Amino acid sequence: MAQEKKNNGKNIPAMIIRGGTSKGVYLLKSDLPEECEKWDAILLKMMGSPDKKQIDGLGGSQSVTSKVAIVGKSQRVDADVDYTFAQVSVDKPIVSYKGNCGNISSGVGPFALEKGLVTPNENETTVRIYNTNTGKIIAADVKTSGNHVNYTGDFQIAGVPGTASPIRLKFLNPAGTLGKGLLPTGNAVDVLMVPDFGEVKVSIVDAANPLVFVNAKDLGLTGKENPNGLNADAAKLELLETVRGLAAVKLGLIDDYKKSAWETPGIPKMTFVAEPDAYETADGTTIRKEEIDLLSRMMSMQKSHPSYAMTGAMCTAAAAVVPGSVVAQVLNPDTDTQFIRIGHPGGVLECGVDYRPEEKEPVIEDTFGFRTANLLMEGVASVRR
Q1: Which of 62, 74, 197, 262 yields a CA-CA distance of 20 to 30 A from 55?
Q2: Once rounded to an integer, what is the mean pLDDT over residues 197-209?
Q3: Is the separation of the CB atoms in 200 and 214 below 8 Å?
Q4: Domains 2-174+372-382 and 190-361 are alike in CATH topology
Q5: Every domain of the chain and the residues it spans
Q6: Are 31 and 46 in contact (CB under 8 A)?
Q7: Residue range 182-196: mean pLDDT, rounded
Q8: CATH architecture label of 190-361
């Protein structure tokens, strides 16, 4: 009977975990069909997509709350668990497995410990995570005590109310998730010809996830945009998606930039940056110029990200040490690359990079940052077909 339930997908054990500034449904791979092609229908139904409200599912009607982590014991010698990230579109019948989510990654360690996939240590447990989407290893340092995950602490991240225990994420050798190195086009800066707009200079950088960076002023933006205001500007959203689509064509992900929202909705991630300046966060908090090293805004599934993706921060940190890149051009020249402060709509995100300068491009040894996570619910997801 248990095998029948697993195969027909009606009742699937699940945890809902807030990971960083995202929230997702975490599943054991063993509780899903062995045939991966059957996953899409289950995940769409589970999250309530396609529907802008996701009223009949577990999704929260935003890209940051319509995510799934699929986790299992790893057979690799350098990893404890394998983790596949699924971005479930809110309003389209699409599940994307291209790229990873760093915020959801921060919940994988706690989930693995909760499910007994990893044995906890007394004070802190390092969970080695192999992300199948990118083929990269992430080391997550999770606070543990008494053989349990310790979620309580005094560490706060921008975009999440309250405090929790810190989770340190280190992305090892993060460059080249597409198999084309840190600079997949071979250039620190490329020029895209945007129809009905003109030339736009971009940096396409691939570390943890591929991102396309553009100077905000080149698109008539400031880098201080509020997500709600940007999401209400259809013309700017179309321009940003066009630039992203052209970058996707340059990466060989699609053959027509107009297909980007359907064929590669998750990567490359569109990001526009600006020199540090004072601004107000989405909740009205004033961030002083001296508190940040650059301004940055990210797009997520064709909408403005309410805060900042963790993989985006990792790629931003890597791009910061690429001489001549769009990010390096706007970065505070006194920035400590072990402590890069990104000003985003939710506040400030700190991250760092370990690297070796080389003649052509730097070798990124690792990128790192801190997140928090919280187990919100454990139960059974009922998926009706």
Answers
A1: 262
A2: 98
A3: yes
A4: yes
A5: 2-174+372-382, 190-361
A6: no
A7: 97
A8: Roll (3.10)
Q: What digits encode the pLDDT tens for the residues 92-117?
A: 999 999 999 999 999 999 999 999 99
The CATH architecture annotation of domain 2-174+372-382 reads: Roll (3.10)
Closest by Cα among 367, 374, 375, 373 to 169: 367
Paired tokens of 355: 């690297």
Confidence of residue 147 (pLDDT cuts 50, 70, 90): confident
Give the pTM. Answer: 0.93
Contacts of 110 by beta carbon, 8 Å cutoff, 6+ apart: 17, 142, 149, 151, 167, 373, 375
